[in-house]
Amino acid sequence: MKFNLNWLARATSLVTLLLLFGTSENNIVAQCIIEDFVTTMDGGAASAVCQGDQVELCLESNTLPPSGTMDWEVSDDGGASFTSISSVPLSLTYDPADPYLSFMNVFELPANGMGYIFGVFGWAPADLTANQVGDELCLQAAPMPDPNCFWYQGPCVPPAAVDPGGPGVPGNKYMEGNYYQEVVDGSMATKTISYSVEVTSNTMSCGHTSNIFITEFAPGFAFVVSSQVVPLTGLGKFTVTMPIGASGGPVQWGFRTTGPNVWPTDVDGCGSVKIAGCEPDLCATFDIPEDACGMVDEYQFRAVVTPYQCMPGCVAPNEDGISDPMVAPLSCPMENFMTTVNGEEGPLGVCAGDIIELCFDGEDLPGGGDVIWEVSEGGDAFTPIATLPISLTLDPAATWLTFMNVFDLPANGGAYQFGVPGWAAPDLTANLVGDELCIQAAPMPDPNCYWYQGPCGPPTDPGGPGVAGNKIMEASFYQEDVSGQYANTTMNFTVEITANDMSCGHTTNLYITEWAPGFPFPPIAQALTPITGPGVYTVSLPIGATGGPVQWGFQTAGPNVWPTDVAGCGSIKALPVAEFCTTFEIPADTQEGVYIFQAVVEPFNEAGCSSDDPESIDGITEPIFVVVNQGITMNCNDHLNVSVDSLCQLGFNASMVLEGEPMEYFGIDADQFNEAFYTVDLHYNGEMVDQDNLKDYLGKELEYSVSDACNGASCWGTIFLEDKM
Fold it and tell me: How far is 27 from 184, CA to CA, in rounded Å?
């Protein structure tokens, strides 16, 4: 974890004696902390999850504070509320890229009274000893190449004699080597900070010890307020923690190695302590409940860093320490599908050469996917006949967002003025009434000349009924996805416009906008489709691989109007479009007796979630059978006695009188095709008879005729009506 503040040079002694020394140069001005949060789910962008799944959530950041906590939170109600999953204490740690300072304090040996002698700022780290080797820090005893008896135990003799220092000779001074970082701007006041490291090797000997420490000074390094030291006595993670007072004085943290000086060739023989960084574990796991389906539509995950704010005097209201939510739709494999042929569920009887309409409707369809209509001729393999992109549409139950951008009129240069998120939907105007959306011009009740054309100044503002607006209002009514689920797909947004009489210089477009993560301006791409009249309108946009936010909806632009003038400027009314329809023509020369159709949803259940019936819940609809009338030899019974029902109705159909008609077509009861394949008429004395009221024809003989609806072949006979009820 990097904590990019102003590191200055100071040091403390082993005892509470404070040595003042010069500060380093190149002071860095404290900057506002800018969130650089990168969140992942299972190592990548958020994606659909199954009930019973376990997901791993991770945060990466270089701007975490030196204290506080990082909490993972989850929402199962669309982001309305969040609950904590885990909480991780935040800590400073060793990072070889950070600028560390050095200071050596020199004392008499404990046997000689431990008196302080001097201190040196900037003592070379290689002589502390504190050497960076790759990502590790190696702490060792402090070498001293000067053989003088000041430094080594032995007789002090005249200069012509030999000084005692050399390999194996005990050192004569107690060395305190400090390798540390520092902040002097008061930003740690009133916080509890921690410094954690991982000891990967520890063979220190010869009377030497290494510690980690935190020290707080009074302002101006007047005195030591408090200090905490933790010895590095073995292997593993070590943490020193200390609450910082309110004075705002300097704070230091780092490593302190103490022990007698040694001859340079004896350093390695006294062992070492090797240090690695100990980043906090910013990951957590979350188990999707086994019974989530039916209760939850999606899960949202976010990381919350507390406390998280700018340096004193900085203002950055959007940098709140809360990551953008990762949205993971809950995949519950169910086929809420419905298919029709010519508006009916089927089966259907048709003639060769007929054109039929196939329609599919479904819920919880994959964004960016397709509905593929397929046909099997005579029971052979299915082949595609139409691929229909799955389109988002107007969803009255969804959460719709609003944004208003205000510009000068084109005649005044068209300059951007300001933008307001959350502009009330009734003032956009965009009102949902049931399933229908009504879009109108944006009203402005403020009569000031800023908003309306006319003279500025007392006694009267120019605004009022019929006065021309002075600004262009760009009103966006939209939905937004920040989960990245549409990356590498082509998005479509489709609505049906049932009425369009918008006027007064206003226009409405459907739009899709792709943003880079974090919403930097300008957007990556945008597609617009103008709404010019009633009908079905679609806007499409290929989405890139960045996984950034995507917005789609309606954008209306035009001058502001007085509230009572809104209705006079017309409106656009929109409805959802949920069906995916195509047509198929039965070949005029077909020899096949049956065509079987099915719709395939792709992709389906990308998350691989299990279902109650995995064999049938596969994204493929139940087949629709379309039976082609191939004709039969038309032979009718000559004469039949038939009885009417209690309502004097007959329910007369072709199967009652035809001879040789099949009992079924491809396993389907032939009665289902009577009305499609044949027309039946009754006559009495040459006049057509209404079968719904046969009371006047009881006890009489009627003539009937049956005609093939496709080829016109026919036959006839007679029936005698009886009343046996």
Answer: 10
Give the C-alpha separation, 393 to 63, whole Å: 40
What pLDDT does 268 receive? Answer: 96
Phi, psi of 655 (to 5 degrees): -65, -20
Residues 6+ apart with CB under 8 A from 589: 352
The residues, any chain, with a CB within 8 Å of residue 118's CB and separated by 6 or more, are 105, 106
Least confident of 111-115, 117-121, 250-254, 322-326: 322-326
Q: What is the CA radius of gyration of the chain?
A: 42
**Residue 421 corresponds to which tokens in the numbers above?**
């998120």
Residue 615: the pLDDT is: 62
Four-residue CA torsion sign, 118, 124, 127, 131 = positive
Angle at 322 between CA 321 and CA 328, to 5 degrees: 155
Q: Is 669 helix (H, G, I), strand (E, B) or coil?
A: strand
Give the distance from CA 145 to its chain's centroid: 62
What stretch of H or E contains 490? Answer: strand 490-500
Nearest residue to 594 via CA among 412, 324, 375: 375
Whether the Cβ atoms of residue 216 and residue 226 lie closer than 8 Å to each other: yes
The strand pairing partners of 411, in sequence order, are: none
**Confidence check: pLDDT of 4 > 70:** no
Q: Return the SS3 of 3.
A: coil
**Two structure tokens written together for 413:** 């240069």
Task: Please say whether the beta carbons of 11 and 105 come within 8 A.
Answer: yes
* Euclidean distance between CA atoms 184 and 6, whole angstroms: 7
Name every residue whose Cβ is closer than 8 Å to that of residue 714 and which is 6 or more positions away in sequence.
634, 705, 706, 707, 708
pLDDT band at 330; cut points 50, 70, 90: confident
> Quick one: CA dihedral 257, 260, 263, 269, positive or negative?
negative
Task: Render the burial of 388-427: b for 16+ CB within 10 Å, e for the rest.
Answer: bbbbbbbeeeeebbbbbbbbebeeeeeeeeeeeeebebeb
Using a 10 angstrom Cβ sphere, with 0-12 exposed, 13-18 middle and 19 or more buried, the burial of residue 23 is: middle
The answer to whether 705 touches 625, Cβ cutoff 8 Å, is: no
DSSP state, residue 672: G
Q: Let me know how long the chain is.
A: 725
State the Cα–Cα distance between residues 40 and 59, nearest whole angstrom.
7
| Helix/strand/coil for 654 | helix
What is the bridge-based pairing of β-strands 490-500 and 392-393? parallel
pLDDT of residue 483: 79
- Which residues, at least 6 apart from 341, have a Cβ–Cβ distance to it below 8 Å? 348, 356, 357, 358, 359, 597, 624, 626
Tell which residue, 706, 708, 689, has the closest CA to residue 644.
Answer: 689
Strand partners, 437: 432, 574
**Among residues 79, 48, 45, which one has the least CA distance to residue 399?**
79
Tell me the three state secondary structure of residue 410: helix
**Residue with token string 């006695």:** 641
Residue with tokens 């000349």: 449
Enclosing H/E stretch for 471: strand 471-481
Q: With pLDDT > 70 as the criterion, what percentage of the chain qualifies? A: 91
- For residue 32, pLDDT over 60 is answered with no
Q: What number is the average pLDDT over the span 276-292?
A: 89
Which residue in the block uniquely carries the two structure tokens 């009754």? Answer: 682
Token pair, residue 190, equals 């009133």
Secondary structure of 509-575 in the HEC alphabet? EEEEEECCCCCCCCCCEEEEEECCCCEEEEEEEECCCCCCCEEEEEEEEEECECHHHCHHHCCEEEE
pTM of the model: 0.54
